[in-house]
């Protein structure tokens, strides 16, 4: 499947137009588009414009509330709950992290669970927002079952991503955004869309055997065996159980039952370093850590040591200047 390079401004405008045509108000459409473009700019196309068509299908079927009344209820000085009213998860996550940031700036920490939400896109967006305020950001969300537990044949958990963002003084923030599966399902779907095979170890068939044909993938595998499996459970506990939402096999499918509200849960946290140490020293030490890591001599076959998130940051710099690469089929859909 071919890809095209298009300016991020054009793609953003096309997404906004599509969403508004589907019944989303302009401000909400712009926020969703901004988060999708954030992913494409960073080269994480699995969570970018590619998703627009699916969202609109679910909107049309009634699985997403086009005009939600997203509300926040404080449960304590550093805790609260955002009710997404079954709207776009991107909007829900943005509001939840916003409240977490406000509480962290005032009281040192802010923790917010989100309920009655839907797919919220790349978590890196939300933790990056925290770093803009010189705060540490943490985000988690559960997803419907697609990953086999370590030692199991059938799927039970989702890809259950987790993200951290840590500010620095002069260096770009440390951003770690990862699925607890070997890869996110979106990457398998992207390879399928582009007609490419996948590396062995990404997915298994119904018998639990590794496959390289993305169309034969029935389940994904946890990264690092039992380690990724354990972290996946933690994510489901924080974003599912702690939020009073479903877990594992009880979560509605993203690509099935499009007329059903997904009722997803998320967890967001913001931490203010100044409540624990000297904030200026913290930022300077982050710079020093990043710089010293880069100075570690590279192993054979590597040109240098990178900091987590650095590849995506370089992709963003290049994409802002040259445009983003998206599947030609996605671009054609957006232009219709």
Helix content, binned percent: 25-40%
Instruction: Please state roughly what percent of the residues sit in beta strands, choosing from under 5%, 5-15%, 15-25%, 25-35%, 35-45% or over 45%.
Output: 15-25%
CATH architecture of the largest domain: 2-Layer Sandwich
Based on CA atoms alone, the radius of gyration comes out at: 20 Å
Spell out the helices and strands N to C.
EHHHEEHEHEEEHEEEHEHHEH
Unreliable stretches covering 5 or more consecutive residues:
none
Largest sheet: 7 strands, mixed
The spatial strand order of the largest sheet comes to: 2-3-4-11-5-6-7
CA-based shape: globular
Broad structural category: alpha+beta
Number of strands: 12
CATH topology name of the largest domain: Ribosomal Protein S8, Chain: A, domain 1
CATH superfamily of the largest domain: Malate/L-lactate/L-sulpholactate dehydrogenase, NADPH binding domain
Overview of the structural elements:
- The chain has 336 residues and is of the alpha+beta class.
- The mean pLDDT is 95.
- It starts with a strand and ends with a helix.
- A hairpin with a 5-residue loop joins β8 and β9.
- The protein has three domains: 88 residues, Orthogonal Bundle (Hypothetical Oxidoreductase Yiak, Chain: A, domain 1), CATH 1.10.1530.10; 183 residues, Ribosomal Protein S8, Chain: A, domain 1, CATH 3.30.1370.60; 40 residues, Wheat Germ Agglutinin (Isolectin 2), domain 1 (2-Layer Sandwich).
- The chain contains ten helices and twelve strands.
- It is 38% helix and 17% strand.
- Strands 2-3-4-11-5-6-7 form a seven-stranded mixed β-sheet, sandwiched between helices. A three-stranded antiparallel β-sheet has the order 9-8-10, with no helix packed on it.
- α1 packs antiparallel against α2 and α4 runs parallel beside α5.
């Amino acid at each position: 499947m071919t890809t095209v390079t298009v300016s991020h401004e054009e793609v953003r405008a096309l997404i906004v137009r599509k969403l508004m045509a589907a019944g989303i108000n302009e401000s909400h459409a712009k926020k969703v588009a901004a988060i999708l473009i954030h992913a494409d700019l960073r080269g994480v196309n699995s969570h970018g414009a590619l998703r627009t068509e699916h969202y609109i299908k679910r909107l049309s079927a009634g699985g997403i509330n086009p005009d939600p009344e997203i509300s926040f209820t404080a449960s304590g000085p550093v805790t609260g709950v955002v009710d997404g009213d079954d709207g776009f998860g991107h909007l829900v996550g943005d509001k939840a992290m916003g409240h977490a940031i406000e509480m962290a700036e005032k009281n040192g920490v802010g923790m917010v669970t989100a309920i009655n939400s839907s797919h919220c896109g790349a978590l890196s967006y939300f933790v990056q927002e925290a770093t803009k305020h010189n705060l540490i950001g943490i985000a988690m969300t559960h997803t419907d079952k697609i990953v086999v537990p370590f030692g199991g044949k059938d799927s039970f958990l989702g890809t259950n991503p987790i993200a951290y963002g840590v500010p620095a003084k002069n260096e770009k923030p440390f951003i770690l955004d990862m699925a607890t599966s070997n890869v996110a399902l979106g990457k398998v779907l992207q390879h399928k869309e582009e007609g490419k095979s996948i590396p062995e170890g990404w997915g298994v068939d119904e018998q639990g055997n590794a496959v390289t044909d993305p169309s034969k993938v029935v389940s994904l595998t946890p990264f690092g065996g039992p380690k990724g499996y354990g972290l996946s459970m933690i994510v489901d506990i924080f974003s599912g159980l702690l939020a009073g939402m479903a877990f594992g096999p009880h979560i509605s499918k993203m690509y099935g039952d499009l007329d059903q509200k997904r009722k997803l849960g998320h967890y967001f946290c913001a931490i203010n370093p100044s409540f624990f140490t000297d904030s200026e020293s913290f930022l300077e030490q982050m710079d020093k850590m990043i710089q010293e890591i880069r100075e570690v001599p590279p192993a054979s076959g590597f040109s240098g040591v990178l900091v987590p998130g650095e590849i995506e940051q370089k992709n963003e710099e290049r994409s802002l200047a040259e445009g983003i690469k998206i599947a030609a089929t996605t671009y054609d859909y957006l232009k219709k």
